[in-house]
Amino acid sequence: MKRVMFCQVAMVLFLCVNLAVPPGLMAQGAKEEAPKQGAPVFRPEEIDQMTAPIALYPDSLLAQTLAASTYPLEIVQAARFVQQNKDLKGEKLMAAAKDKDWDPSVKAMLEFPDVLRMMNEKLEWTEKLGNAFLSQQKDVMASVQRLRKKAQESGNLKTTKEQKVIVEKETKVIVIEPASPQVVYVPVYNPTVVYGVWAYPAYPPPPPPGYVATTAAFSFAAGVAVGAAWSGHGGWGCGWGNNEVNVNVNKQNNFTKNNYNNSQKYQKTQTAQNQNWQHNPEHRKGAQYPNQNTAQKYGQQRSGSGGRATTQEARGYGGGAGERSGGKPQTSDLSRGGGKESAFGGSGKGGSERASSFRGQESRGSASRSSGSSGGSKSSGSGGSRSGGGKSSRGGGGRGR
After folding, report:
1. What span, in angstroms and rounded, lies between the C-alpha atoms of 347 and 246?
2. What is the pLDDT of residue 30?
3. Which of 32, 159, 341, 376 matches a 20 to 30 Å C-alpha distance to 246?
4. Helices (H), 261-377
């Protein structure tokens, strides 16, 4: 009797479990709970928001901007250098910066002060764009093509006296080139207009530098002469076949020879004429990578103790949102920025805290170098440190321009 009752109870339990949770659903739940290695950190709509201000740049400038965005601290340093040398432009400005050891992509930005200023003032956007490019390069390049197609379909992307718009017949890839190899015109446009109806209201993109609300949906800033003296610009290009950035070795070497005191450090030694761009973690200056996979790829640990790249001071995060998140990828959109106002305006928390810390880190370094060379007092050095980490550093490195 007891045996029969035991069998009946066991059967009832078996039926309850299988009817309540089907085996397929159980397997699906287990699959969803399992961490996905290499899963995308940024959604397509987030990436479109990031690339919208620069997607219509000529390919060479686009490639250079994407590469430079992976070095946010050096962007701050370069922007401050321009601010401190307002009277110098073009070749004179490049000559004055010859002793700076910034990555070539960053140093080449000196010729495009408006773009550099945007990257410095909207530092959270720059950091996020660089992180997306490092961890999801193909997705970023695909986003550019997606947005170019929308601009073309809206009638706002076409060949002009400033640029050539080429649509490859077989691949339908849209290529943008300067109309003259000696002059580059930076397009000025409102992304919410030039691409037609913006598909992601929760992710509004910002306008590029120099944009003023006018009747023109698409215009150009003054042309930038990029002749033989600055041949590094011609070294950049987009390999749309594989959604990658390419560097012309000969032109890159010529650029570093002309614009670095220790040029051999930046020479490309490969024999091939063109090669894929490679991120150099030395120029990252300890800034945190977007996820553990990317950090390991470039020989750094995203969290832990010991080593320059794992300390809060070196990362420049100052215990901000990146630390509080416990190392989890940040997927909030830039329009929210941890608050209600757009992160492009610098009002959000999270990323804007990290942006202030980037500037503070550079201010502390500048104050230290200044104190060491001039024998300044301890009080003046600490004062520079405090001002660099606070709001006043934005005036010195961003909006003061």
Report:
1. 35
2. 40
3. 159
4. 292-297, 312-315, 321-324, 351-374
